[in-house]
Amino acid sequence: MNYIEVMVKKLQARRNVFLSGGAGVGKTTATKEIISIYEGEGKSVAKLASSAMAATLIGGQSIHSFFDFRLFGSVHELELGGKFALPKKVKKILTKVDLLIIDEISMVSSDLLEMIALRLVQAEFKGSLLVVGDFLQLPPVVKGGGSVEFAFECEAWREFAFDVVVLEQNHRSSDTYFIDALEKIRKCRVDGELLEYLEAFVSSEVCDENVTMLYGKNASANSHNERLLNAIDGEMIELEAELEKLESSVSDAEAERFFDEARVERVLCLKVGAKVLFTRNAWNYYNGERGEVVRFDDEAIYVRKSGGEVIKVEQVETTKSLWGEEVVDGESEAFEKRLLLLRHYPLRVAYAITIHKSQGMSLADLMVCTNEIFAPSQFYVAISRAIDPQKLKLTKPKRGFERIIYAHKKALEYYI
After folding, report:
1. Residue 38 dihedral angles phi and psi, to the nearest 5°
2. What does the alpha-carbon distance between residue 200 and residue 93 come to, in Å, rounded to a whole number?
3. Are 333 and 274 in contact (CB under 8 A)?
């Protein structure tokens, strides 16, 4: 019995599972296989993530959208806003769900997990919960200078009593030395051998158009992309993402939050000859794969992949929806009520990207700006995007590698 069969057996016995492991070990692939098994048996799966973009990678939606949390960030805020009671439509959905999946659990705060737990209790949820992620990657976003509170710190985490499954085999890279170095960086086990290994990646070369630069700050990534785009002869094409409100009840603030969660460029600026990254997985490209724009028409962008194949890239849709049930001919049927619709091209300029937006990507050629590392586990997330360490470059960190290899103390203690 393989590990996926073991997890399915646990979940079908109504035990909750936490699927963890470092970058590139196949957490998303395993999650999709579990979804396929459940759905193949005619069972209902709710696929959620902390952001709309992450949810897209598993064919789902954001946590806030599914539970109708609106802009509230804690149980206390739900109470103050008069939204403590369980919405009928959410209860109807949860009574039908056999498996609830939450991806990117590292970015789910303790407050948000408590909100989820509240809704599950209110709905008398009878299914199982599968949470997926790595607490030694990007932590929850904290607003207003507050402290980071991970999902595992709340009472709800203990009550869920997760069976923990940790994947260890790296599928993104086959270089064993690199894989060993990544695990040292992930768990902050800095020694002389690791520092010497990292020094070999240091390059003073100017990053060219065939390399993706990873920055810590949006302004730096935007400036780098603008400079290299402007260096290409030809007309700049501006493709604006279209956000449509499908229900008048949706506030401007909710629409803005959805746009931010989607991690989509509001205006995608491209030229023929520009290098681009795909931002989704599809049958003919993967998230993080590089290509070059060869032409445009009114409905699509044509991109040449590294092997020479030119593919037609059309707009995709990301939606925010609510689900409910209605009685049709005496039988209860589920329906989807779409609130927001975002149309955009699944592409991003490839010359530079922020480390935050690169999470989940596999990159073939990259250079990490080490002097913009400012958050726990940020260096690990950046360097672990690499498919081939032979095509990885690092700038020389002014503070030394030992100062940028760090993780949140509470996250480290969780895995020890």
Report:
1. -60, -50
2. 53
3. no
Rounded distance between C-alpha atoms, residue 158 and residue 114, angstroms: 11
> Per-residue b/e over 105-129, b at no fewer than 16 CB within 10 Å?
bbbbbbbbbbbbbbbbeebebebbb
Average pLDDT over residues 119-138: 95
Task: State residue 110's pLDDT score.
Answer: 95
Residue 277 to residue 284: CA distance in whole angstroms: 13
Beta bridge partners of 342: 243, 318
Q: Which two tokens stand for residue 301?
A: 């962008």
Q: Which amino acid is at 91?
A: K
Q: What class has domain 3-167?
A: alpha beta
**Model confidence at 332, in pLDDT bands (50, 70, 90)?**
low
Average pLDDT rounded to a whole number, residues 74-92: 88
φ/ψ (deg, to 5) at 318: -120, 130
Name the pTM for this structure: 0.88
Cβ contacts of 142-151, under 8 Å, gap ≥ 24 = 142/109, 148/109, 148/408, 148/410, 149/109, 149/110, 149/111, 150/106, 150/109, 150/110, 150/408, 150/410, 150/411, 150/414, 151/105, 151/106, 151/108, 151/109, 151/110, 151/112, 151/113
Name 46's bridge partners.
100
Where is 328: in which H helix or E strand? strand 316-328
Compute, in degrees rounded to 10, the torsion defined by CA atoms 188, 193, 196, 197.
-80
Distances (CA, A) of 128 to 23, 89, 100, 301, 330: 25, 20, 6, 42, 29
pLDDT digits (tens, 9 = 90+) for 285-321: 998 999 999 999 989 999 999 889 999 999 998 887 7
Task: Read off the pLDDT of residues 218-256 as tens digits, 9 standing for 90 and up.
Answer: 999 999 999 999 999 999 999 999 999 888 888 888 888
In 41-125, which residue ranges form alpha helices assigned H by DSSP? 52-56, 63-67, 75-80, 88-96, 110-122
> What does the pLDDT look like over 153-199, one tens digit per residue?
999 999 999 999 999 888 888 889 999 999 999 999 999 999 999 99
CA-nearest of 227, 195, 221 to 394 is: 195
Nearest partner of 268 among 248, 295, 243, 238, judged by Cα = 238
**Nearest to 345, CA basis, from 238, 239, 244:** 239
Domain boundaries, given as residue ranges, for the chain: 3-167, 212-364
> 67: closest CA among 38, 35, 100, 44?
100
